[in-house]
Amino acid sequence: MKKIGSIVVFICSIVSVYAQVDFDRPEAFLFERKNRLLKEVDSTDSDQETVSTKNKTFSLEKEKEYKAYFSAYGSGYINSNAITNSFIKAYLYTKSYIDSDLKQQQVDRLKKSNSIGVDLKAGIYGQHTFKKIRVEAGLNYRDFYSSQYSADAYKLAFYGNSMYAGQTASLDPMSMYNVNYQTIYLGVKKTVGKKQNIQLGARLGFVRGGRLQRIHSKNLSLYTANDGSYLTLNGKFDVAYTDDSTYSAVPSMNGAGLTSDYFFSIKGKQSELAIELLDVGFVRWNDVATYKGDGSYTYDGIAIDNIIGGNGIVLDPVNLATIFENMGIHKTVKDVTYMLPSTVHVSYYRHLSPKVTITGGVRQQFVHGYIPKIYGKLAYYLKKDFVLIPTLSYGGFGRADVELGIAKSFSEHLLVSANLMWFEYLVAPSKTSGQGMSVAFSYYF
Amino acid sequence: MKIYIKAVVGILFIAGIHFSCKREFEKPRWDTKVLAPLVKSKLTIRDIIKDSTQVETEVDHSISLVNRQQIFTYTIDSLVSLEAPQFKRTVKLSSLVLSDQTITRAISLGQIALQLKNQGNPLGDQIILAGKLGFPIPFPGVNDITAGPISIDISQFFKTADLLSGQMIVSVKNGLPLTISNLQFSLNNNTPPSVITTQTFTNILPSTTQSKTQDLSGKTIGSTIDASIDDMDIAPGTVIIDTSDALLLTLSISNIKVFSATAIFPEQEVVNETSNVELIGLNNVELTETIIRQGTVHADVYSTAEDTVRFTYEIPAATKNGQTFKFDAVVPPAPANGTSHVVFDTDFSGYLMDLTGTDGTKYNTFYNVLKGKINYTGRLVHLSLDDSLDMTLTLVDPKPSYIKGYLGEDALDVGPGNIDVNIFKNISATTLDFSSAAIDIVFENALGIPAEATLDNLTAYNSKTGANVSLTGTPVNQSYPIAPATEGGGFPVSVQSTIDLSTGSNAISLLNILPDKFSYAGIFQFNPAGKVGNPHTDFAYSGVDLKAFLDIKIPLSVIAANMVLSDTAAFDIPALKTAGFQEGKFNLLVWNGFPFDVKVDMRFLDQYGVQVDSIITTNTILAAPIDAGGKVVSSKYSVVSFQLSAAEVNTLTNLATQVVFTARFDTKPVNTHVSIYDDYSIDFKLVGDMNIQVNSGQ
Fold first, then answer.
1. Distance of residue B64 Cα from the nearest chain A Cα, in angstroms
2. Distance between B685 CA and the closest CA of chain A, angstroms
3. Nearest CA to CA, how far is A255 from chain B (Å)?
4. Which terminus of chain A faces fewer neighbouring Cβ atoms within 10 Å, N or C?
C-alpha cells in the first residue's frame, strides 16, 4: 500500500492530466497529429504529395501506417483558483506545519467562490487494426476529486470558528465530489467519408466503483453563538459516502456502472478539428451512508445523562455520525446512482511549417467549480522525431497556467512523451496555483 | 477535540479537503481556535441522590429524603422446627403358618403278603396263592401281622419344619374284603428319627374308614415319614382273595404353625402397626397442622428373611391432592444366614399434615401405619420366627410452608446491633438545620401472631465527627403492641405497626448530626398474653416474614451553610485523547434551578486513587430566586470559567480515571428554610474556547 501511495504521490507531485486518448497529448504530435510538412517545394514539381499554403507549397511525409499500438500512461493534476502551490506543497508533499503566513497567503487569494480539483489517472491500452477498423481495449484507474467552497469555509477550516462568535459564516457555495473507480473498456475507431478524412470512434467500459464521497449544498451557513453555547447549521445539504473506515488507493468494490467515450474528427492535409466526449457514464453505489438536511440544525453539545450517575463522565470520540445525530440529522444507508465526472473537449491544430504546428482548444468538465479551460499550444519540431510543445491555458479549476510538452520517438516504433506543468510551482509557488504531469510510453508496429 | 475536527472542520467547512485528506501520507498541521459546546447535562434532585429509594415526592411535589434500614427479620423457619424423632422398629415374624395338606398312601394285600413271606411266615405264600385262584376260599383269619416301614414323601409340604402347633388326622380305609379286627400302626419321622404318632384301630369293616387325630405340637417333621403296621389282625371269612386290595392311609395336616421351616410358605404378615409420632423441640408451640415446604422420608431397612418382604409406610393424616402420604417398598431376600439392606427416599413436600394425632386431640403429633408381609412365591425357602426386619424411618430436613396452631411465646433480644445509614454519607456541613424530621420503627408483620416490642436504646453516630446522640423520651422502654397478620384466601395479609420515635423525644437531634450509623437494642415478645384465650389460630407462611425497619424521613426543607456534597464518578474522555489541544478557556454555563449558591471543584484521581490534577473554581453558581411561597421562580444563569493547558489535558486524558466532585451549597435566602421540589433542576453546558492544532491525518 505504501508503494502504491508513493507512486500516487509521485504522480500527484508532477501532474497535469489528460485522458489517455486526448487528441492533444504530446505524443500525438509525433503520431496521429504529426507535422507531415517536409520542405518547401516548387509547386510544379508534382511527383510527390504536396500541400500549399497561401504563399508556399510543402511536400508531405507519407502518412504513418501501423498495425498495432500499445501504450502505458500515468497522469496527475491538481489545480485551484485560490490555493497556492506553496500551500499544496505543505499540505500534500511535505506534510508540514501550515503557519499563519501560509494561511494568510490563501486568504489574500480567496474569492467568493473557490475551487480545487485533483485528477489522477493511470492505465494501459492497445489498438489493433482489422480491415481499416481499429479495435481498442484497455484498463484505466481514476481518482477524481473536486470541491467548491466559500472564503468563510476556508477560514473556518484553517482559523476555527472562534472568530465568528456571534456571527454567521457563509458556506455557500459548498460542494465536493470524490470518486475512485477503475474501468475495463473496449472501443473501435473507423475512418469514413469520401476523402477518408473523417474519423469516428466510441468506447464502452465496465466500471468498478471504489470510493464515493459527495457533498452537495445550497445556501449553507454556520452561526456560532456569542458564548459558544451552540452552533447552528442552516441551509440545504446532502452528504453521501461509502465506507470510509480505512483509506486505500484501491478501495474495495462499492459499486458498479458503465462508462463510454465518443470521438469525432475531420482532418485535412495540414489541419484537424476534433471533438471528444469522455467519461460519460454512471456508477450505482451500494450501501451509501447519506445525511440529508434542509433547514436549521443546532449542535449544542454532547448530552451526558447524569455525570454523577453510574457511568460518570465518559465521552467517546465524536465523529460525523455523532454530530449529525446530535443535530437530529439521521443517517440512512441506501444504494444511489451518480454520474461520472464527464469531459467535453474540442481542439483544432494546423501545421504552419515543417517545424511549427499550432493547436487551440477548449475543455470542460461537468463538475462544480470547473470553468471552461481554453488553451493554445505551439508544437515546435526540433527534429521530425523530437518536439517541444509549450502551452498556455486559462480556466479549469485554476486560472492561467503554463505547461510544456515534450515527445521523442525512437527507432520508428517507440514513443516517449511527457507534459509538465511545473513552471509556476518552480518560479512563483506562493503566487500561483496548479501543477502536474503526464507521462506515456507507447510502442507501435 | 474530535468534536472540533470532525464537526467544525471535517463536516461543516471544507469537508472535501478533509474527506480526501484521510490518506495516511497526508498529515499537515495547523492551528485553529475553536469555540464550541462540548458536553451538556441536566441534574435533578433524583440525579444528585443516586438511590431513587431515598427520594420521595410529596403531594405538593416537595422532596423528602427517606431511608429505610432493616433491623431484623423473623421467618417461619425461625419460629418452628418440624423435627420428628426417628421411627425405629425391629419386627420378627409373629407366626409362620403352613398351608393345610393331605396325602394318601395305599398298602395293598400283596405288599403285606410279600412282607409276611420275607418274614418266613407261610401265610405270605398262601395269600399269594389264594390270590391266583379267582374264586372264594375260606380265609382262616390271621393275627399279629406286621409290615413296614413304608416311606411316605411329604416334601411337597416342606423339607423340614419345627412345629409350634398343628394336627395330623390319620384315616384308614379298609379296602380288604375282610374285617380288620385290630390295627396298630405308627408314623415316624425319617430324619431325625422320632415317633410322630402311634394309633390303634379296631373292627374296621370292609369298605369303611376310621380316623384318629394327632396333635403335632413340638414335633419336628422332615420330608419323609415312615409308616409301619405294628400289629394287624384280620378276621376269618370266605372271600375271593385279590392281592391288589389295599388299605388306604390318608394323612391330613392342618393348622400348622411353625417356629421355623424350609417350606413353600403361603403369604405371611410380618408387621402391621399404627402409632403416633410427636414432633420434638417445639417447647410451648402447639401445632395443629402444617404444610410441608420441603422434606424427605428416608427409610433404612435391614432384613434377615430369606424371602422378599414388602412393606407399606403411610401417614394417613398427610394428604396432597386428595392422596395420603404413602409409599411401598420391597426388601429383597436376605442371603442364607445373612442380611439384606435397602434405602428408600420419598419426597414429602407439599403435604398438608394434620398434627392432632389419631384421635384428633393432640398437638404436634401425626400417626403413621407400617405394614409388612411376605408374599406367596411358590419357592421353597427357610423362614424362622427368629428372622427380623429392622426399619428406621427419618423425616429429613422438613421445612414448613405453613403452620397453624399456637405458635408459642418466644422472646427475642433484638440487638445490641448496628445499622449503617448512607443517606448522609457524602454530606458534611457547617450548618444544617432541617425544619422537621421523623424516625419510626416500622414492623411489617406477615406472621399471624400477636407480639410486643420494647425499644431499650437507639443511638445515632457520625463517625466522621465523632458525635453521637441517644434517643430519650417517651418511646424508650415502652412496650408497643405489634398486631398479627390476618389470613385471607389462603394468603397472609401483612399488618403494619409503627412506633413513632419522634413524638415526645429528641429524634431530630439524632439527625442533625448527619449520622452514618445507628446502634439499637430492644426486646420482642410473641404472644405476650400467653395461651389464655388463644384458640390455636396463630399461623405463619413461608416467604413472608415479620420485618422491622428503622425509617427516617426528612422533608428537604433546610437551612444549609457550607453544606458539602462530594461524589466520585468515572472519568474517561477518549474524545480528547486524539485531538491536538493546545490550551483553552472553558466556560461552564449554568442555569441553576435550585435555591442554593453552589461552588464546584473537581479533583481528578488516577487508577490508584492518587490525585493527578484539579480544577478549583472561584465563581459561584448563583442560587435561583424564590417567591413568597418559597418556590423557585426561574433559573439563575451563571458562568464558571477555568483554564486548561495542553499538559493538563494530557494528564487528564492519560492518567485520570475518576473525578471527585465537591459541591458546596449555601441556601438562599440565608437563615430561611428552603424546600426542594421534584421539578427543580440545574442545567449546565461546558463550552470550550480552545486552541487546537489540527492534524488532518487524524
1. 20
2. 7
3. 19
4. C
Looking at the complex, report in whole angstroms how far the Cα of residue A281 sits from the nearest Cα belonging to chain B: 22
Alpha-carbon span B589 to A229, nearest angstrom: 8
Partners of residue B25 in chain A, C-beta under 8 Å: 5, 9, 95
Cβ of B33 within 8 Å of Cβ of A319? The answer is no
**Co-location of B393 and B472 in the same domain:** no
Report the residue from B9, B17, B39 with minimal CB separation from A302: B39
Identity of the residue in B570, B575, B687 whose CB atom sits nearest the CB atom of A317: B575
Question: Poorest-confidence range of A58-72, A174-188, A405-419, B422-436?
Answer: B422-436
- What CATH code is carried by the domain that includes residue B324? 2.60.120
Residue range A316-336: average pLDDT? 83
Q: Which three cell numbers stand for residue A159?
A: 482559523
- Which pLDDT tens digit goes with each residue over B273-301? 888 888 888 888 899 999 999 999 998 98
When scoring A308, A314, A367 by the number of chain B Cβ atoms within 10 A, the one with the most, hence best to mutate, is A308
Q: Domain span at residue B322?
A: 87-96+267-406
Grid cell at residue B93? 415374624
Residues on chain A touching B2 (C-beta within 8 angstroms):
317-319
What is the number of domains present in chain A? Answer: 1
Please count the other Cβ atoms lying within 10 Å of the Cβ belonging to residue B480.
17
In total, how many domains does chain B have? 4
Which residues does chain B have within 8 Å of residue A233's beta carbon, measured at their own beta carbons? 12
Q: C-alpha grid cell for residue B612?
A: 493527578
> In which region does residue A245 sit, left (phi positive, over 0), alpha (psi from -120 to 50) or beta (all else)?
alpha
Predicted confidence (pLDDT) per residue in B30-46, tens digit: 999 999 888 888 877 77
The percent of residues above 70 in pLDDT, for chain A, comes to: 90
Range of the domain at A359: 2-444
Four-residue CA torsion sign, A312, A317, A322, A324: positive
**Widest distance between CA atoms in chain B:** 162
Evaluate whether residue B56 is within a structural domain: no
| Residues B31 and B131 both lie in one domain | no
Is B324 inside any structural domain? Answer: yes
Q: Does residue B82 lie within any of the structural domains?
A: no
Chain-chain contact of A312 with B569 (C-beta, under 8 angstroms):
yes
Domain boundary among B233, B264, B295: B264
Listed residues B357, B378, B406: the one ending a domain? B406
